[in-house]
Structures are given as C-alpha cells and as structure tokens.
Amino acid sequence: MKQISKEVYALLRGIVNKREKAMKVGETTNSDLLGMLMESNFREIQEHQNNKKIRISVTMIFHEVLRLYPPIAMLPRVVYKDTQVGDMCFPTGLQVVLPTILVHHDHEIWGDDAKEFNPKRFVEGVLKVTKNQVSFFPFGWGPRVCIGQNFAMMEAKIALAMIL
Ligand code: HEM
Predict the structure, then answer these.
(1) Ligand 1 center to residue 148 CA distance, Å?
(2) Alpha-carbon distances of 152 from 90, 110, 135, 142, 146, rounded to whole Å
(3) Is 89 annotated as a binding residue?
(4) Is the CB of 35 under 6 A from ligand 1?
(5) What contacts 45, CB < 8 A, 6 or more positions away?
(6) Which residue, by CA, sits nearest to atom 1 of ligand 1?
(7) Measured over all CA atoms, what is the biggest interatomic distance in the chain, rounded to whole angstroms?
(8) Considering the entire predicted model, what is its pTM?
C-alpha cells in the first residue's frame, strides 16, 4: 500500500510540475480542474506570504470532504445488554444512532468554521485535530470499523490523478 501511495504521489507531483512549467511560459489556461486548483493555491500562497506556509495534502482534502459530507451520515446500533454510560442507562434492545454528520459539524468540536471547507485543520493529523476523541469517524470506529478505508482513500487518490 505504501509503495502504491508513493507512486500515486509521484504521479500527481509530475502532473502538477509539468503544468506549473507550462503556466509559467503562458502555455495553458485555468479552464480545467487542475488549472482552477492551482490558481486557487497560488492565490492562497500570495495572500499568506508573510504567514507560515501550510502545505495542503490530498489526504487533508479528502479528510475534510469526509468530515463535511460523510457518505454514511449516521451509524445505527442496538444495545445488546444493559449498559451504563456516565449518568445514562441504555437498556437492552434500545436502538441508538451515532449521528456522524452532526458530530462532524459540531462548532464546539471543530470551532467557528465547522461548516466551512478548510483542509488545513488536518495539518497535524486526525488525532491532533480531534484531541484524541472519537469526533471524526467517516469510516466508523472500533471493532466494526470499515475494513476498506485504506483501499477507499487510495482509490480516491488514483481516481483524482486520472481526472487531473
Ligand atoms: C468512502 C468510502 C467508504 C466509506 C465512507 C465507508 C464507511 C464505512 C462505515 C461507516 C462502516 C461502519 C459501519 C458500521 O459501523 O455500522 C463501514 C464498514 C465496512 N466497510 Fe466501508 N466505507 C467505504 C469504503 C469501503 C470499501 C471500498 C470497502 C471494501 C473494499 C468497504 C468495506 C466495508 C466492510 C466489509 C464493512 C463492515 C466491517 C464490519 O462490520 O466488520 N468499505 N464502512
């Protein structure tokens, strides 16, 4: 998986470098997806020239997309035995729902820009931004966590590389 990841990264880098050179000599326009992304990136860099530059990775972008638009918006569960969680008692058979999308949009967890698209929040990784709490779980959590999550992330990167 790491090897494929490296290859996809090198492929994307190659595409971007080639386009960068072409743009510098005025060969291409920004009328396609890659052009638009690069133009917005250049603008961002210019606007924040004096601040510390943050390099946004494809993983950070996918994490932010999965945070704002989790494909599985909530996880249903049935309590299989009486369970006490803090002050709350969950009796056997109770149906509960873990509202992924609500947790992912919670201002108390993600801050004032919780509803905005800001991949930079993931710059130090998922554990850091969630302060080690289970507040980002697009692939579920625990024993039933998605077994295809690494595959899905890789597939998305390959698809993006192909589109670009
Ligand atoms: C963006 C893509 C995907 C998302 C958001 C996603 C999300 C999830 C979530 C939230 C669960 C947990 C369900 C629960 O706890 O009730 C799950 C479970 C699962 N996912 Fe995914 N998944 C994705 C892609 C994939 C892929 C590509 C595969 C297979 C190649 C896969 C295979 C599975 C399987 C087998 C389970 C059940 C695991 C278990 O119950 O032990 N998923 N997925």
Answers:
(1) 6
(2) 34, 24, 20, 18, 10
(3) no
(4) no
(5) 53
(6) 152
(7) 69
(8) 0.80
Kindly indicate the confidence band of residue 145, based on its pLDDT and cuts at 50, 70 and 90.
very high
SS3 98: strand
List pLDDT tens digits, range 84-109: 999 999 999 999 999 999 999 999 99
Give the C-alpha separation, 55 to 60, whole Å.
10
Give the pLDDT confidence of 3-47 residue by residue, as tens digits: 887 888 888 888 888 888 887 787 766 677 777 777 777 777 776
- ipTM for the complex? 0.97
The mean per-residue pLDDT over the stretch 149-163 comes to 90
Q: Is 80 in the pocket of ligand 1 (CB under 6 A)?
A: no
